[in-house]
Structures are given as C-alpha cells and as structure tokens.
Design brief:
- By secondary structure, the protein is an alpha/beta fold.
- The protein folds into 2 domains: about 100 residues, Bordetella uptake gene, domain 1 (D-Maltodextrin-Binding Protein, domain 2, 3-Layer(aba) Sandwich), CATH 3.40.190; about 210 residues, no CATH class.
- The protein has 10 helices and 13 strands.
- Strands 6, 7, 8, 12 and 13 form a 5-stranded mixed sheet that branches. A 4-stranded mixed sheet has the order 1-4-2-3, sandwiched between helices. It has a 4-stranded mixed sheet with strand order 5-9-10-11, covered by helices on one side.
- Helix 5 packs antiparallel against helix 6 and helix 6 crosses helix 8.
- The two termini are about 40 Å apart.
Length: about 325
Amino acid sequence: MTAAALAGVAAASLAQEFPEKPIRLVVGFTPGGPSDILARALGQKLGERWSQQVVIENRPGAGGMVGTDSVVKSSPDGYSLMIGATSTIAANVGLYPKRNFDPVKSLTPITQIADHVSREYRLPSGHQLVLVTPAPLAFLGIPAQIALEEPIEQGGNISLLQGNGLIYRMCGLGSECSIHEGKASARRLLLLRREALELALYTFRYIDAVDQVVVFLPPAPGKKGATLLFQRDQLGPQLLRPLHASLAHRTPSVTGVESSPDASLVSRLTTDLYASSLTPGNSDPGGIFLVLRPLSEATSSGGSSSSGSGGSDLSDLSQALGGP
C-alpha cells in the first residue's frame, strides 16, 4: 500500500503562514506508475487546498531508496514530502542494511510525537494539561537562528547555535494560552517541564535532523510564559538508553510529580528557563535571531519582550504566530 510520508519536521502545516513557497513531493519511482499517478492526484488536491504549487519530482532507483534519501537530506522545514511505499519504508530495511538513513527515525511525523506525549499529561479534572503544536524554527516563514545568552556568572557570552531547530508551543485553553483550570504552582510547572523534556527526548530519538528543541511554556494568567531549550548533545546520556530508563513509565499527576522517581532528573535537566524575544539577524538580512536570555536576569532588568532594532514589531508578529 502506498501512503504519503513526511520528512523530518513535517509539522510546518500547523504554522499559520504555511506554505509560503512551492512544496516538493518526491516519488521514488519512474513516471506513469501507481505511485506517480497517486502523487500527481494528491499534489493537485494539496495545491488547491494550500493555494501553492506542489512540484512532483520523480527520483527513481534502488527500490525507492534514491528518492527517500533525497527527502531525508532535505531541510526539515515541512516543504519536502514524499510518496512512500512498502519497499521504501519496510522492505528496504532488510534488503539494504547499509542505508544512509533509518526510515523509522528519519520519517516519523513530528505531529505524532506531540499528540502521543501531550495526551498523557492531565489536569486533576482529567482534562488534558495543554495542547502542544509543533512548527519549524521560523516566524512568518523567515528562518530563525537561536542566540543563546549565558548567565552572568558563566561569562554572559552570546552563542549562535548551529543546526536545525524545532518549536513546540504548549497552550492551555485560557486567555493568551494560559491553563484555564486550577492555579499556577511550582508542581504544575514541574509537570510542564517534564512534558517538555519528554517531547525533546522523543524528538531527538526519532528525528535525526533536529539539533535543538525550543518549548514555549504556557503563561500564568496575565504574565509571560517561560521558554525551555534542549540541545541534542546535552542529552546524550539519556538518548543512549530507553526512554523509560530516564522517565518513569507512568506519567505523574500534578499532585504526584514531586514524588515521581524521575523528579530529580527532570528538575536538573530543565533548570534553565529563558525569556524569549526576536530580533533581526545582523549577518543575514533575511534571517531572524530567536534570543534566549536567562529568565532571572530578564526579570531583574525589566525583561523587555523584544530586543534590538525592530524587535517590537517582530515580537508582535511572533505573538500572532504563537511564538515567544
């Protein structure tokens, strides 16, 4: 059976401005075959729905491996899709042991991770804690690069992180994405931090192309939310063992999160909270910096929601996109 498979961070369709450029739909077989016919019919419907061109690209060879490899190596921004077949996703795993990619890890839709994790976290009433929406590290279709500011005691330097990033936005059903039930508390924050960590661990394990995960936490009513940053190389020990070896198999409740066996690990790996803002990149006129500043320092210094030239405009735009 043939099915559409998304490559890398394929959840860009959740962003309000997606798509802003033509979509590439790769077929790993020659024109005129069943996969090609399906792709052209699907491409036409997607183009009508998105009001954007969907370009069919035939890349035959090695039972679909050539086309699949090109998609896996593409930018994980949601603009490269493929028509997958049993051979490309399953049979080739045994036929080609020296593949350059793992179809399970490289082609897992990121929306599946967000849905799987978020539905395990509940409020005392039984309602889901937050809605989690993933998106590429971009705002209004403009790619962003993370500018990370160190705490003063660590030197206060600014580092530009290299590689591909992914955003998860946690949103409650209250005003401005706040959680509409109960009161904000340290225990509820710890549970949100645990959920963010689990999202990052799943992402790094199954999506090879992602190097950083940014999670926007929901704010308390009337306040700004904090931001968490996870980097693949900093979670190396956790990625070398099964997930349940790091996080308890049973997802804790708000009242039980502090006594969960993984509470100390969660606390240690999610200690650094950041205030986030957007500012135009000074080296690339078409780029944006997502600035992450230690929350304690941002608060003590007045914590502007934007920084740099034109920052307030970008901040307003990011708010409309569900960004920082």
